[in-house]
Structures are given as structure tokens and as C-alpha cells.
Amino acid sequence: MGKRNNQRKNAAAMMLDSDDDNSSVSSTSTMRSDLMVAPGNDEMHVEKDSLLDQALDALFEKRGSTREKALASILEAFNSSLQHEFVEKKFATLLHQCLNCIKKGSSREICLASHVIGLLALTVGCGDNANEMLEESLPVISQAFKSGSESTKTIALLECLAIITFVGGNDPEQTEKSMQVMWQVVHPKLKSNVVAVKPSAAVITTMVFAWSFLLTTVDGWKLNPKDWQESISYLSGLLDKDDRSVRIAAGEALALIFELGSLEKFSSSTKSSDDGSTEDGNKPRDYVHIQGLKAKIINQARDLAAEAGGRSSAKKDLTNQRNMFRDILEYFEDGYSPEISIKIGGDSLQTSTWSQLIQLNFLKHFLGGGFIKHMQENELLQDVLGFTPKKKNLDSESRLSGGEKRMFRSPNSALNKARTQQLNKQRMLSAGKNIGQFAANVGDDA
């Protein structure tokens, strides 16, 4: 079981790692050359803080192309190393200037600024600054969604919102609000005289991935059963769409939803037995409905896992889809989640749940070429994904016996599972009793 899955590259990860992942930093080299000119110095060596200060100053310029170059330079610096000292001094200024770029900039400028804000959140880590980022950014991002429907801009804003909520959301209500905003990108609230704009497949895919990424931080037992059913119905419908990326995103989201708990949580009846029966022996209507939906989803997964390729089918995309839905089908039928292992330097990062896999894929895609560097040095990501580089653990490990090493280093050990959930636990400490609704308007607009 695990061996077969370890040999298979995750389909969603491969789909996300396209040639366009780092397109937003294509003009970086131009900006660096502009900022690094130092007459009389053949090596043109300038301190990184000085470069970042100049780039930050350039964000105040009126010319949009100047701001774009500055954002690209900042993006490269944040991707290549963790800028803790710069962030400590200039956090608020950088955030506010990036938000201004989102308010008044071109689509490209909005994409760059959104990515910088996400990297800023990952650099800041959990705490008051991250929460401040979320509170100040959410209204700006929500308005930006309404101001235009260009796919590249919408995708960048969705990814930014997912990252800053993941890091800065201190309570379930904040996460719920961001998830609602994401749903409304695909299911907008429309006035009677407004014509709905059909979202592109790329926007739907990103929305589902971003929504699923945030769902990994939510306690499923506190969610409204009606919303669960509506979300599952909508995602099941996406499995019938023509675009493979949409189908893969929906499949992962459905696997995550079922991983969050048993089917009994979907029944609104508080008096049902373990098999879903009420006191009179009958099955509640919503329990029967969810069982029917699960049967439908299993059949859909079986068909997609064995889909034959046509002339227009890209072989790589078809293989990714088949592999992904074989994993999903195996999970639905046998309860086995795919086990993934990737190399980071000389270390291995392993996942054994859908939640971990979705978090890994999203962070890997967002960070692009900076993923390895951040995983080696960013303690927030190490805590989230349960990853400890050997160099950090070398001294303590040398004092452990062989049995202790197996106990503490196993990806399935209690220690690693606790570390993986650390960020979620921090959020739940401040959580209220009810998360409320997290997929608002899905039923009304789907």
C-alpha cells in the first residue's frame, strides 16, 4: 500500500508545478541590476538590506512599472532567504505599500504585491503582526475581487488570502470569513441587473485548492451539517467538469472532507445511533442523502481512475488524474491515505494524511523556487509540516538510543503528529464554541 503510493508522484503537486509558477518574478534581474549599480565597485556588492530599502522606497513612486520592478526585487529577496531583520524594521510599511499596489495597480502589479504579502506572512509567522496583516488585507482583497475578473489577478489574490489566513487566523470565525470570500469568487452575490461572469477553470481550481488548504485548519465537528452536504454536492458536480485540474482539486477536497470525521457528523439528527438510525429504526433523510452522495462520488472516482485517453488528452495530465483518483478511491473504499515522501536537502519530508498532503502541495506551489530554502530555515513551515532538518537535530539525536530514534523520528510517531498539528492547536485555543457557517451561499448559488 505505502510502497505503491511512495513510488507515485502526487498528481496535484505535479499539476501545480507548471512552467509558469515563477512567471511573476520574470523581471527580477532587471530590477536587481537597477538597484545594484555602485560606481567604482567591480563586484557591485551592496548589502541586502540596502537593496530592500531601495526597493521599498520605489513602491512610493507614481510610475507603475517602477513599482512592479521593486516588487519583483522584493519577491526574489524573500524567496531566496528569510528577511527577518528587514521585516522587523519595515513590516508595516511594506504591508501598507503592497496593499496600495493592490488598490491602484495593474493586474501584474496586483499579482506581485499579493505574492509579496503572502511571503511576508510566512516570514512573520504566527502572532499579532500576522493577525494584523489578515485584518487589514481582507477588506482590500475582497474589494479587489469585485473590481475585475481577470484570471491571473484573481488567482494571485486567492492564494494570498489563503496564506495570510492560514498564518494569521487566530480564531475559526476569521478562517470562516476568508473561506466565505473564496466561495463568493465563484458564487458571487449578484444584484438583479448584474450578469454573472463565469469563472475560468483555473480560477475554480485555485479557489478549491485554497479553500481546502484553509479547511485543514478547521475542526470539522463544529461545522454545520447542512453546509457540509452543500459543499459535497458542489464538489461532486465539479468531478463531471471537462477540465482535469478542476476534477483533481475537487477530488482532493472531497477526500479531505471525509477525512475530517465519520459520516455521523453529516446527520443533523442528534438522536441517531452509530449506524445513523433514529430511535424508531429509520434513517434520517440527510444521513441517507450523504450516503447516496458518497456512493456517487465513489463511482465518479472509479471512472476517473480508469479514464481512457483521447486524441486531445495530454498524457501527463491523464496520468496525474488516474493516479490521484486511484488514491482517492482507495481512501474511500479502504481508508488508506497516500503516503508521500520528498527530499529536502539530505532530509525527507513525509505525509500520511490528506490534510498534510494538501498543506504541502499548496505551500510548495506558493513558494516555488523558494520552497527548499524556507523548509530548511522557516520554523513556522517546519512546525506545520512536521519537518526537522538534520542539522537542527544533530546534537540531540546523537544522545538518543536506536529505539528512541525510531520512536521520535518516525513520521507516524506521536511527536511528529503533534508537531504537524501545532499551528492548528494554537488557533483552537482561542476558538469559540461554534464556528458557524463556512461555505455560505453555496446552496443558494450553486
Q: Can you walk me through this structure?
A:
The protein has 446 residues and is an all-alpha fold. The protein is built from 23 helices and 2 strands. It has helices spanning 2-6, 11-16, 28-35, 48-58, 64-80, 84-104, 107-124, 128-146, 151-168, 172-186, 201-215, 225-238, 244-259, 285-305, 315-334, 354-367, 371-377, 379-385, 390-397, 402-409, 414-420, 422-429, 442-445; strands at 340-344, 347-351. A two-stranded antiparallel sheet has the order 1-2. The protein is globular. The model is unreliable at 1-46, 267-276, 393-420 and 429-446 (pLDDT under 50).
In short:
This protein is mainly α and 446 residues long.
**In angstroms, what is the radius of gyration?**
23 Å
The pLDDT mean sits at 75
The separation of the N and C termini measures 37 Å
Main β sheet profile: 2 strands, antiparallel
Helical residue percent? Answer: 55-70%
Strand order of the largest sheet: 1-2
Number of helices: 23
Which regions have little confidence, pLDDT < 50, spanning 5+ residues? Answer: 1-46, 267-276, 393-420, 429-446
**Number of DSSP strand runs:** 2
